[in-house]
Give the backbone structure.
Amino acid sequence: MAYLEAQKQQVQVNRLPRAWGQNGPNQTLPKLLLSGLDSLYVSFYLDTTTCTIDWDELAYQKEKAGRERNKGFEKLELGTEHLALQPYGKKPYRYVLSNKLFEVRLSEGLSPSCHVQFFSEALWIHGFEALTTRFKAWAESLKLHTLQSETVSRADWAFDYHLPNADFAPDHLVSRATKKATWEEHNIVQTIQCGTGETVVRIYDKVAEIEQQSDKAWFHELWGQKDDVWRVEFQVRGERLKQGGIRTLEDLTHLQTDLLRELATSHTTLRRPNGDSNRSRWPLHPLWAQLTKDILQGPQMGLMRSYDEMVGVEWRLDRNGKSVHGYLKNMAALLQIFRKCKETLTLEETITAMSAIIERHHSEELWRSDVERRVKAIELGQ
């Protein structure tokens, strides 16, 4: 794998990311782990006047889900898909239905009548072509016939790199964007963002983002590792997509590489300081040099391979177990104070006492119904 020769100059900055090494920059060159579409939003112009959807029944089921607040949604078999009908709409759409593949916003009498968000996990596993084909098959199963070509309203591309030594800082990004933002934890930069609105470029610690926000632990298996992964992300919305000639899904297939190349070479670049007062003359950072080469190869359209879904479930179990363990410590402290004893309660003693306390609030019937509701919610991607 060829890279630009790394600059040997020591770069001094105030707040470098957590992976900054002690021996200077470029200790380990970036290695691409994944690349492709991470999020996709498309508006579809579908004929709702001749479809087989019972709109009155759909309205009733939505109202029913709203009345049963502890339930949160209504599970429906609609056409070829099982979907969760939410008790709310998203303006201007009256209905929101979703599963693990996509969220569908739907309404009668609107143009476009349908707006779809294709979810990250489904895009990586199935690829956007297979996923959009499945959505179109669902629409056809309900006789929601196409009136005109769809419109891509937003696409997010991600490039994930193994990067043990993230030797860059916010002012190393040179961008046409007029706005820049950074997010830090304990004075350590975790995210750098250039731009808002139509075009946004981000570099961020994806491992930290998973731990603190998204819970997308299934990425660990796709990467083959759990540490030192940084993401370069391009988020592009409607008008900028149109400027790049991307209006339909077919356009997206053929023109995405051209758009990404322009963004990574002309819109925003990551540079390495060399003392020149003109930052645009700084040499490219090895991460950005590799990124431009990877873009020219064309991003993968999803992995289109299987993986063990239970890895994500196991990770969530571990996170829940960690939380419960923390609550048990608090309960042990409260019990010690309540009982006015000097000896610290053991884990076993605390669990025994907790069982008696929980029993006051337990109903076997409600337990079964609530657990089943949660099972359905997880299966539908809620």
Notes: The chain is about 40% helix and 25% strand. The longest helix spans residues 310-339.
